Amino acid sequence: MAARPGYLTIMLDRSQLAQADAACQQQAGSVPMPDVLAEIARRGMTPTGTVVTSFVKETTVSCKKPALYPSWADLQAWQTQYGLELVSSGATKAKFNQIDAAHQWSESCGTLPVFQAHGFNRAWGLFGYPNDSWTVDAQSSIVANCFAWGRDYANKINTRSGQASPWFGYVKQLVGGSCNDPALPCYNPAVAPGKRYTLPSTISKWMTPHTDAWRVIQIYRLVDGAQPGLWDCTAADPRAHWAAVTETYCFGDLKTLLDAVQPPTVVTDPAGVARIWNPDALDTPTATVLTGPADGTPDTTAQLTFSASSPRVTFTCSLDGAAAAPCASPASYTDLAAGPHTFQVWPTDAFGNCGPAAAWSWSIAG
Prior knowledge:
It is built from eight helices and 24 strands. The protein is of the alpha/beta class. The longest helix is centred in the N-terminal third of the chain and has 11 residues, at about 70-80. The chain starts with 6 loop residues before the first strand and ends with a strand.
């Protein structure tokens, strides 16, 4: 019998096209994202990117220093060419611990239709809290209803047996910083205060998770060679590598880590792990309208309550054929016209499964 694999996700945070210089051009020595995707894909691995939806334009590259961001057209082309999958890092990169519940919903669950409209139907696999600003309340009451996991930066391993509410997925970052050789000037913490360059040797064991374990490795912008005052990736020994900006990492060291992945490890996106690890990930949720207006009522207001077969569900509602919009039970309507009315509600679970509509019909007496 073949061994059950461990799972690995290689995640490019915010799907940054390249590092930007002062003029919003590609910084010399910055490795463009297609080159990174090609290295991952040619090893038979699925690359994953996170996206802040407001950072991405339809057809043109955008600049938000210190990075350039690809267009939706670029991302779609890379999905076709390299198998790129995406997850959400929010609508505007707002810090969750500084916004109210309505804003938290629009920042997280509200981004999923944007991904779906561009052909990315697996963004529900993980929500990448901007700036690691998660709260247990937001994760439990909002994000866990429409994402399989919420990102938490931690030196922890995700295990199949350990998956439980509030459904956090632990992520390890590969960062730049001062070098690791104390004999070199780049060892001085002033090169990158508070950070030291992540050595491939300390991460290589992460690249082959054990059975029923899942590791997530996150990288930012990849660079090569050396740029004065910015980074140096030229030494054969990674202990001499450094980067002044922590969201920068040497491309050669990433390739070393990719080569460290051993079978039967499966490199996939978070949605791939969710569908394998969670039995209910393949179940289609169903909705039930519990209460609503009586037929023939003279009341021009209506309140309808509804529920779903799964606890991890969000809803969209429509009245009389209007465009469906996010909703919660109870849904209330006022100033309704006399005559027939039909309410519909659709459930969508945290694994991206959308169930059929449940309906309630009634008429208002004239």
